[in-house]
């Protein structure tokens, strides 16, 4: 029993010996910071950032006393030091030997009256009783934005249409209902607040360029945790819905538009007339429900990536749909870190529904495209009699075990014995910070299998890289080292 008591006393003495409460005035003793520079991602002006944590260590045996803490400028950052938000109250702050404190920092930037991001800097300074002064650099890019609607106010209607320009980004709140033409200029950026969506009841003209794409994504620019940005987590906003009950056909044109990490990418629905979708060079990625939904809609989708959706990446029901040189990859939540709010459904990447007796027939064709994913069957054609289905499949790489259509033989099919990678990276390697990359691997079975006649109209891939016209690669990306 005495040995146990002696052991406890010795342990307590050892712990006390490791943490010294006597303050040192030695000017050579300095604090150590978890980072010498605190960098924020782009911060929307007049809105404020998330909070970043800074740890301040005293690695020495003796205690160190801080006489004063201050911000050199003090206009764009807010700091809480060891629970105290008023820096002028911080005097005689002591950090004992081998101890630490936490500092919490937020960026709150006023309007810059400049369209492009502006670098904002400050320094958080610590003056020690010993006479030494140390500082941590604070940096943030302030970005002025145009706000559309207001959080918590429901539906905002725009009867005469709406034009998004590329001058500066937009933040969209709640539901935006555009009753006439929705126009989005090349280079425009739309940040969607949580739950926000756009309903387009008229035409859509969203014409980006390879060098100036249109970006539509959630408005969280900070990180979910560690180095995982919120952009990697789907469901951060609702979706884009092109819906019409008009008797005249609507025209939806999307060129080089990236639609990222919502619930639904693009949902097209026609009731009285069949709208027409022309989509080229686009990317619909990382959605917690669907990527592209085509209901009673005619569509031509080319040079487009539609990837990583918890349910169908592509759903077709009613209308004529041609997919040319497109990559459809279903690897949602295929990773070694759980960042999604929902699991992957047991759903194919592409579902073609031709079973309705009241809606128009569904005639969906794929040329020089890729349909694959980590489930065994990624293409389902639901039709009364397979051999009479009018759609065409040619020059594709397909992972499917249910396609039984006579005119779908001119394709390369995945086999369980295949070992070659299709893409450069179809698994999110968290520790290595390697995100999905659906460009072709050097040994990809999709290389050189495309129909050259179909490739003539698409001499460049989605990235602007020249496509081989004699033996083109399947998918929206031509392989190059």
Structural classification = mainly beta
Largest sheet: 11 strands, parallel
Radius of gyration: 28 Å
Percent helix = under 10%
Query: First CA to last CA: what distance?
Result: 72 Å
What would the principal axes of the Cα set say about the shape?
elongated
Helices, by number, come to: 2
Mean pLDDT: 92
Task: Identify low-pLDDT runs.
Answer: 5-18
Within the largest sheet, what's the order of strands? 11-14-17-20-25-28-31-34-37-40-41
Give the total of domains. Answer: 2
**DSSP strand count:** 43
Proportion in β-strands:
35-45%
Tell me about this structure:
With 481 residues, the chain is mainly beta. The protein has two domains: 19-143, Sandwich (Immunoglobulin-like), CATH 2.60.40; 146-455. It is 4% helix and 41% strand. The longest helix is centred in the N-terminal third of the chain and has 17 residues, at 2-18. The termini are far apart. Mean pLDDT is 92; it is low at 5-18.
Q: What can be said about this structure in brief?
A:
With 481 residues, this protein is mainly beta.
């Amino acid at each position: 029993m005495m040995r146990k008591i002696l052991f406890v006393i010795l342990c307590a003495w050892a712990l006390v010996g490791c943490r010294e409460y006597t303050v040192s005035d030695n000017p050579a003793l300095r604090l150590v910071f978890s980072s010498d520079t605190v960098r924020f991602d782009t911060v929307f002006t007049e809105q404020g950032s998330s909070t970043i944590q800074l740890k301040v260590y005293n690695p020495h045996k003796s205690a160190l006393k801080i006489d004063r803490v201050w911000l050199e400028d003090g206009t764009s950052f807010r700091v809480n030091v060891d629970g105290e938000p008023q820096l002028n109250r911080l005097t005689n702050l002591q950090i004992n030997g081998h101890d630490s404190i936490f500092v919490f920092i937020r960026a709150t930037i006023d309007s810059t009256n400049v369209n492009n991001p502006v670098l904002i800097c400050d320094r958080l300074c610590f003056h020690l009783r010993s006479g030494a002064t140390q500082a941590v650099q604070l940096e943030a890019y302030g970005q002025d934005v145009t706000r559309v609607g207001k959080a918590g106010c429901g539906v905002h209607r725009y009867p005469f249409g709406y034009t998004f320009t590329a001058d500066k980004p937009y933040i969209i709140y709640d539901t935006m209902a555009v009753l006439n033409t929705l126009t989005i200029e090349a280079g425009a950026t739309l940040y969607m607040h949580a739950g926000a969506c756009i309903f387009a009841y008229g035409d859509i003209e969203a014409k980006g360029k390879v060098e100036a794409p249109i970006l539509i994504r959630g408005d969280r620019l900070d990180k979910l945790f560690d180095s995982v940005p919120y952009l990697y987590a789907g469901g951060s906003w609702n979706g884009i819905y092109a819906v019409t009950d008009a008797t005249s056909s609507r025209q939806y044109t999307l060129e080089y538009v990236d639609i990222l990490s919502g619930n639904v990418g693009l949902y097209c629905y026609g009731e009285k007339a069949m709208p027409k979708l022309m989509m080229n060079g686009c990317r619909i990625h990382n959605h917690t429900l669907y990527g592209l939904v085509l209901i009673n809609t005619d569509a031509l989708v080319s040079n487009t990536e539609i990837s990583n959706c918890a349910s169908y990446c592509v759903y077709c029901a009613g209308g004529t749909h041609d997919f040319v040189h497109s990559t459809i990859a279903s690897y949602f939540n295929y990773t070694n870190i759980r960042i999604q709010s929902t699991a992957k459904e047991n759903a194919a990447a592409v579902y073609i529904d031709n079973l309705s007796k009241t809606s128009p027939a569904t005639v969906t064709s794929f040329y020089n495209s890729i349909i694959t994913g980590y489930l065994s069957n990624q293409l389902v054609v639901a039709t009364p009699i397979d051999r009479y289905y009018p759609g065409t499949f040619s020059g594709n790489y397909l992972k499917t075990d249910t396609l039984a259509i006579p005119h779908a033989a001119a394709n390369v099919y995945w086999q369980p014995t295949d070992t070659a990678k299709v893409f450069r990276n179809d698994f999110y390697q968290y520790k290595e910070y390697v995100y999905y990359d659906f460009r072709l691997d050097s040994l990809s079975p999709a290389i050189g299998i495309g129909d050259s006649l179909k490739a003539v109209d698409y001499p460049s891939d989605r990235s602007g890289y020249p496509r081989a016209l004699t033996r083109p690669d399947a998918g929206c990306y031509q392989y190059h080292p």
